[in-house]
Amino acid sequence: MKIKDIVNRDLVTLTNCEHEPIHIPGKIQPHGFLIGLTSEGKIDFCTANISWYVSVTHTEALGKKISDIFGTKAEKQIFEYINNDKNKDVFPLEIDLLGKFFQISIHKSFDIYVLEAEFQFAGKEKLADVYTQTIQFVTQMNDTTSLKDLCALVAEGTRKITGYDRVMIYRFDEQYNGEVYAENCREDLEPFLGLHYPHTDIPAQARELYIKNQLRLIVDVDYVPVPIFTVDDKEGKNLDLSLSILRSTSPIHVEYLQNIGVGATLTISLIHNDRLWGLIACHHYSSKNISPEIRLAAKLQGQFITSQIDIRQSNDENVNAQQTALALEQLSGMQFPLLQESVQTIVEAPELLNICNAAGVSIISKGKIYKNGLVPAEEQIENLIAKIKNKTSDKLFVTNKLIDHYDDIGKYSSFAGIIYHSVGNSDYIIWYRPETISEINWGGDPEKAIIKDSTGLHPRNSFEIWKQIIKNQSTPWKQYEVNGAVQYANTLHNQLMMISLSEEEEKYRNLSEILKETNSELENLNWISTHDLQEPLRKIQLFTSKMLSEPNINQSESIFTSLQKVSKSAGRMRILLDDILKFSRIKYTRENLEKIDLNNILKMTLVEMEETISENNAVIEYENLPEVHAIYFLIQQLFSNIIQNSLKFASSERTAHIKITASQEPELVRHSNKIYCHWICFSDNGIGFEQKYAETIFKVFGRLHNQEEYKGSGVGLALCKKIMQTVGGTIHATGKPGNGTEVKVYFPCDPLDTLL
Prior knowledge:
The protein is an alpha+beta fold. The protein is 39% helix and 24% strand. In the N-terminal section; belongs to the phytochrome family.
């Protein structure tokens, strides 16, 4: 049987250092040994140092059953532990292997069970002691209110429990640069509190492993890595040690720890909202290992922090958030006149700046810019809005470093942070913060975190404080400040809408008054022009009639003809004025609608028109008509006008025939995007018309023929249209030149109609 080691010997370069495969190093730290078991119990992986702990070599163990090496009792204990999920991630298995006592941590890596064995601690701490320390910590934790105080307490408590020389709470920013947020260390050590470290100190693949495996030990940074061997039965065979306790760490990280003089480390992950929020980093300046009980207690310290992050951050921000909420409440409750001038009053309210602790604010409404506080020039504001609109369609845009988004504006502006919110209809509100120059102390130059020389890559060896001056950015906007700004932007939107509606309402009210006054004047004028003109026309007809009856007038044919024309013209004018008077009296109202029987109206109309129908030798055919909601005298006028129109435009080539049909029951009829329930159709065999004039014939004086050819005022069908509008219906005509006309009227639905 052939065996091989799985040590990863790939060279780390500047191009691949961020992808160094630290989860498959193929080697471990020497303070324990590792065995990889298949599900059948065969030893498939084994470290070279197993012989340091038991009287078996890795070559003897590989390929054998676990029972062949350690006995059936040990095999049974191991698989019972594997199959019992309870306590597996909390307490290691305590077991006798070939007469020596070990603690074994077990996890599964794909299809391999990874067993990591360490000597059992001779003077290991009792659970009762750990429990007592934890209870004391919880009691003290309840006395803290801020997140910083809690982290300081955790640093102190972790150092007491573990005995490390230095314990730091390390917090990441959005780019994973780190800051020593809290610290507890030996009095003789230089404090690191407040120092910042670049994200390259803990690369992405290391952060990923910290999320998977929340506790990491390096017992002695000067250790010599121990290779892992396996049965050589598959090409590219490897073992993922992401969850391993003994996993050998990156050579670059080991060199980094050696450069800062650290002898041993313990690292506990702080995970919040599935993201690596920070670390508890424990340093010791000589080699150091701790028992499983102490490891568990230290891990609990980290969980105390992560469970309290939201609460403590809320406490830290609560006072300021309450001030923001108060400002928002006061501003939202203010009563402003519903006038555009009120926008200036709004922008000058101090609460508007307090909502998000801004130095200035501007409201852009209806093309005008209203400003308060420290704000840029109007030209810059307009330029900023144009660029944001061009880049994003989002209503909200927030930054504390404008130069990162709009370099040309950020370089030359006096402001660095903005909260921009579109409130619709080309209206905007923008809050501003000026540049805040700040100083950051780094633990060494972050630009020289990785050094390359003839032997390869190395971490920096200088950790002298390196000061960085930060420009072109404002203090960051807190989430509660952004939330307050968004809430008020919505309130402002409503206020501006109310102002616009109020102004529109006032405008339409004024127009309505003007229109009402104009209509009243027109009605008076119309009444005077139609009523008062009737009298002189009657006199004209009277005088011409008398003159026509004089004997001497009959002797002069030219004078007689002229007087006849005058009389006829006066008659036509009286008819026209009468029709105009009827048209003007119809109001657009449905207040007087009542249920009427159209059959009665038709019979009454035909009786009144009997002489006219007889003179034209016309045939009127009709069927039963429905009951509708309308105004009696108006519908009688409607029927009379439509029938008269058919008789007027009858064809000389045939007998006039008018057919009247109707819907017998209520039915839904869609016409011109409206719904009606009844229709009446008047069809004749007259001269018809071209369909392109279907709208023209319903206009006042909308004639298709000259006065001499067909008599009439040109108001009849316009009067019909106005009647149907008055009762909530409509009218439509279809013409076929030489073949007749069809006029169809539609009546509205009544709530009591039964629609089948």
